[in-house]
């Protein structure tokens, strides 16, 4: 979405949404390049309507770029999901994403202080001023693979001693510029992800930290983002891992409804649960006695739809559960001391549940438990139910 007028920008800011203007996006992407023809994988963890991630994809080559986007707002996420390969509507803190899986990240997080309404200090590992930008940085920095490119757009005053130290420890070749439109006092920071041990022994890390601290304090105003990139471009590395994990942990009611509609609940497994579509049934060697039938039914060996002589139809499911019975014994020794002994004994209890599906029956749809199945004349065969079945 283009950011054209200051009044419109202020309205976005009031709603907690700070989209990157088109001019800044175009200039930022001029710094990117690829010196290979392999597939690359990019991420925008705060994608908004997806404009920045879409332009990044076109810059790197749509046919060889896998674009991932995450957005909290439902309406913006719906628009973004039509522009990327993988799009998730979710709070970033409620997602599971593979670490070191992306070669480039366009990072323009929410701006503001952490307050109780946004979870307070929950999940924040720093000791300095608690800001949303720093919380999102902690969550996202490890998603970049080594050699991956960071394009970070945040207000200049966010770079306190703490954030400046983090960036200097995690990135090499750090450069900072003033955004094309200075509505939100934004700076654009580029960096190449590297191992921390390699930076600790490098004086460049100390210089980077000092540079960002001076920008954050207002002592230094960075140069404007150039229209034409004349320095060495930032080369986006090829993807080094298989398809990463990228999904949401919890579901909103609307998303749960969509998943239930897509999966169909448990009805697709109805035949499997009641054995109506099971393997080939074999006839027993001899006619089963009432005892055999009851045992098989209670053990779950006989399940499905059965019909009594009276026409009553039941869907039955048998099973056996184990429960413990307690017994207490007291004994007295020669000195008159009384000791107590508790004995727990396993007891197997059959349970046969039935669902009445008899047409036009007043009990149709009733779920009940069968307590006894007395046979008066002859044992009931599989596929039929005796009319003397009693319900508890």
Provide key terms for this protein:
392 residues; alpha/beta; Rossmann fold; seven-stranded mixed sheet; six-stranded mixed sheet; 11 helices; disordered N terminus; disordered C terminus
Could you explain the architecture of this structure?
This protein has helices at residues 6-14, 22-29, 51-60, 74-81, 132-140, 161-170, 196-200, 203-217, 253-263, 270-274, 290-298; strands at residues 32-33, 40-44, 65-71, 86-89, 95-97, 102-107, 144-155, 171-178, 186-193, 234-235, 246-248, 304-308, 313-332, 338-356, 367-372, 384-385, 390-391. The protein is of the alpha/beta class and 392 residues long. It folds into 2 domains: 6-255, Vaccinia Virus protein VP39 (Rossmann fold), CATH 3.40.50; 287-391, no CATH class. Helix 2 (22-29) runs parallel beside helix 3 (51-60). It is elongated.
Brief summary of the model shown:
With 392 residues, this protein is an alpha/beta fold.
Helix and strand topology:
Blueprint: H1 6-14, H2 22-29, E1 32-33, E2 40-44, H3 51-60, E3 65-71, H4 74-81, E4 86-89, E5 95-97, E6 102-107, H5 132-140, E7 144-155, H6 161-170, E8 171-178, E9 186-193, H7 196-200, H8 203-217, E10 234-235, E11 246-248, H9 253-263, H10 270-274, H11 290-298, E12 304-308, E13 313-332, E14 338-356, E15 367-372, E16 384-385, E17 390-391
Parallel strand pairs: 1-10, 2-3, 2-6, 3-4, 6-7, 12-16
Antiparallel strand pairs: 5-11, 7-9, 8-9, 12-13, 13-14, 14-15, 15-17
């Amino acid at each position: 979405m283009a950011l054209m007028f200051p009044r419109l920008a202020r309205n976005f800011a009031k709603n907690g949404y700070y989209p990157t203007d088109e001019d800044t996006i175009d200039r930022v992407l001029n710094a990117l390049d690829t010196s290979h023809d392999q597939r690359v994988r990019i991420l925008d963890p705060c994608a908004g309507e997806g404009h920045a991630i879409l332009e990044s994809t076109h810059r790197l080559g749509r046919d060889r770029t896998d674009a991932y986007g995450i957005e909290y707002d439902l309406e913006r996420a719906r628009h973004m999901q039509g522009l990327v390969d993988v799009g998730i509507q979710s709070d970033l803190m409620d997602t599971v994403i593979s670490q070191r899986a992306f070669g480039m990240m366009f990072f323009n997080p929410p701006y503001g202080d952490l307050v109780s309404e946004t979870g307070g200090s929950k999940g924040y590992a720093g000791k300095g001023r608690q800001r949303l930008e720093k919380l999102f940085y902690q969550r996202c920095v490890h998603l970049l693979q080594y050699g991956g490119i960071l394009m970070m757009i945040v207000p200049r005053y966010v770079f306190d001693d703490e954030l400046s130290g983090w960036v200097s420890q995690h990135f090499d070749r750090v450069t900072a510029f003033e955004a094309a439109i200075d509505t939100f006092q934004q700076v654009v920071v580029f960096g190449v992800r590297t191992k921390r041990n390699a930076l600790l022994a490098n004086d460049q890390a100390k210089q980077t930290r000092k540079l960002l601290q001076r920008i954050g304090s207002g002592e230094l105003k960075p140069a404007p983002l150039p229209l034409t990139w004349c320095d060495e471009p930032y080369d986006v590395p090829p993807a080094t891992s298989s398809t990463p994990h990228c999904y949401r942990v919890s579901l909103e009611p609307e998303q749960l409804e969509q998943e239930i509609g897509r999966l169909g609940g448990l009805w697709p497994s109805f035949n499997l649960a009641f054995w109506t579509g099971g393997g080939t049934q074999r006839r027993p060697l001899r006619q089963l006695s009432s005892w055999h039938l009851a045992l098989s039914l209670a053990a779950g060996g006989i399940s499905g739809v059965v019909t009594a002589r009276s026409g009553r139809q039941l869907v039955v499911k048998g099973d056996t559960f184990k429960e413990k019975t307690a017994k207490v014994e007291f004994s007295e020794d020669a000195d008159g001391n009384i000791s107590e002994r508790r004995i727990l004994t396993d007891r197997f209890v059959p349970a046969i549940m039935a669902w009445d599906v008899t047409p036009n029956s007043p009990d149709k749809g009733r779920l009940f438990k069968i307590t006894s199945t007395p046979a008066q004349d002859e044992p009931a065969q599989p596929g039929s139910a005796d009319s003397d079945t009693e319900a508890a």
